[in-house]
Specification:
The structure is a single chain. By secondary structure, the protein is α/β, with parallel strands linked by helices. It has one domain. It has a 5-stranded parallel beta sheet with strand order 1-7-6-2-3. Helix 5 crosses helix 9 and helix 11 packs antiparallel against helix 12. The protein is globular. It binds zinc ion (ZN). Zinc ion binds next to helix 2.
Length: about 300
């Protein structure tokens, strides 16, 4: 009987063994995808600590983006996480990285607002922190994953940037920041041709031409924005009075597809390498509507 129990336990362990994607150590019950040791060793980029991080500087002279935040530095054994997401169908690692990325977004903005209030009015520290968070919460972010060509999406079964975006949205909402998934505004209109034999300029032009903007989707988005602003005016209990006035104004301006208030886009990609793809997408958004663009990626190649 005892032998049977040992045998059954060994088979179950073999069948349901979960191991860390990085170090292959067996995962404990509460651990998911990566073990606690590897989480502690993650090469965080700390791009959220400054508005002039290396990731921000890589966009100087390109499309005007408010902030570029990357969660990890793309190096060594941790590249495996992105590989698993992109090529191995591991969607749960994408959600996890997205949630971690979301928890780092707009921290710098909130801290900067808090600091300016502290310097200006010498209010209590708790009040400043709440004020900073309140200002960050006033925006409604439309989270735009960098699109895949439809053929590639069908082949892979999902868009890895959209998976990351879902994790980001979950995390932002937990912090009281309004965030909504916005797909279909940008389209990848063709497979990017092989880049290996092209020079730098040709490669850049090639990527710029690979995306298209969908004006029909924008019209729907503006209608949604007007409706949401109207609803928050009708239910002011969820907002403070200043915000209610602001949203009422937005609703009036957005009625009839007239866009006077800027939209706030959060553009998501898996890895920031040369930035050509994100530059092309940001340029399209900025060219076609009044908006601000913020970029967030799971990893950054320094
Ligand atoms: Zn590990």
């Amino acid at each position: 009987m005892e032998t049977l129990k040992v045998w059954a336990r060994s088979v179950l362990t073999l069948l349901f063994r979960r191991e860390c994607l990085i170090c292959h150590r067996e995962l404990r019950g509460f651990e998911k995808n990566i073990c606690t040791h590897c989480v502690a060793d993650l090469p965080l980029s700390y791009t959220w600590c400054s508005d002039k991080s290396e990731a921000d500087l890589s966009f100087y002279g390109r499309a005007y983006v408010e902030k570029v935040t990357s969660l990890l530095i793309y190096r060594g054994k941790f590249k495996e996480l992105l590989y698993q997401l992109k090529y191995k169908g591991n969607v749960s690692i994408g959600i996890m990285l997205g949630e971690m990325l979301g928890s780092k977004l707009f921290l710098h903005e909130e801290q900067a607002v808090s600091a300016s209030h502290t310097a200006g009015s010498q209010q209590s520290a708790g009040g400043d922190s709440q004020q900073g968070t309140a200002e960050a919460r006033q925006r409604r972010y439309y989270v735009v994953p960098v699109p895949l060509h439809w053929r590639k999406r069908i082949k892979r079964g999902y868009n890895q940037s959209a998976v990351l975006a879902k994790g980001v949205i979950k995390s932002l909402r937990e912090r009281g920041i309004e965030a909504r998934l916005c797909e279909g505004l940008l389209k990848r209109r063709r497979f990017t041709e092989t880049q290996t034999v092209k020079d730098r300029l040709s490669r850049w032009q090639n990527v710029q031409k690979a995306f298209a903007f969908n004006p029909i989707r924008l019209r729907r988005l503006l209608k949604t924005t007007a409706r949401l602003s109207k609803n928050s005016t009708l239910n002011p209990s969820k907002t403070n009075s200043g915000q209610a006035e602001h949203t009422a104004e937005t609703a009036r301006q957005s009625a009839g597809n007239q866009q006077l208030e800027p939209l706030h886009f959060l553009l998501i990609d898996d890895v920031l390498t040369t930035g050509a793809t994100l530059d092309a997408c940001a340029n399209l958004l900025l060219k076609n509507c009044r908006c601000t663009v913020t970029i967030a990626t799971a990893a950054f190649v320094p």
